[in-house]
C-alpha cells in the first residue's frame, strides 16, 4: 500500500506510462488480496454457521429425549397417585382393612416422590466432538490458529 500511495503521488506530479502500468499492476494485486481475504472470511463464516446449526440440532435432539422421558415420568406419577388414592379409598370403605390404607397411601406417596425426583434430575449430557473447534482457538488465543487463516487470525 505504501508503494501504491508513493507511486500514485509520483504519477500525479510526473505522469508516465510506466508509472501508470505499475499503478494498475499494484491495484490488481491489492484487489486480489482483498478478494482472497473476503473469500476466506465468507468460508469461515459459513463454517461457523454450519457448526452452529449442527450444535442446535444436537441440542434439539437431546431436549426432545428429555421431554419424552419427562412426559412418561409425569404420567406415571399421576397414574401412581390416582391408583393409590382409589385403592386407599376402597380400603377405607372396607372397615376391616386395618392400617392397609395408610400403607398404600405412604407407598404411593413414595412412588410419586421418586418419580418427581427423576423428573427433576432428567438432564442429559453429551460430549460434543468436532474436529475444528474454533472456540478453542478463540479461548486459548494461540499465536497461530489451527482453524482460522492467517489473514483472519
Task: Explain how this protein is built.
The chain crosses the membrane at residues 73-97, 103-121. This is MotA/TolQ/ExbB proton channel domain-containing protein. It comes from Thermaurantimonas aggregans. Keywords: Membrane, Transmembrane, Transmembrane helix. This protein is mostly helical. The chain has two domains: 1-48; 60-123. 76% of the residues lie in helices and 0% in strands. It has four helices and no strands. The chain has helices at 2-13, 17-93, 100-120, 134-140. α1 (2-13) runs antiparallel to α2 and α2 (17-93) runs antiparallel to α3 (100-120). The longest helix is centred in the middle third of the chain and has 77 residues, at 17-93. The radius of gyration is 35 Å and the shape is rod-shaped. The protein starts with a helix and ends in a 13-residue tail after the last helix.
What keyword list fits this structure?
single chain, 153 residues, mainly alpha, 4 helices, rod-shaped, transmembrane helix, membrane, MotA/TolQ/ExbB proton channel domain-containing protein, transmembrane
Question: Would you kindly provide a brief summary of this structure?
Answer:
Keywords: Membrane, Transmembrane, Transmembrane helix. The chain is mainly alpha-helical and 153 residues long. It is built from four helices and no strands.
Topology readout:
Blueprint: H1 2-13, H2 17-93, H3 100-120, H4 134-140
Helix pairs in contact: 1-2, 2-3
Keywords: Membrane, Transmembrane, Transmembrane helix
Protein name: MotA/TolQ/ExbB proton channel domain-containing protein
Transmembrane segments: 73-97, 103-121
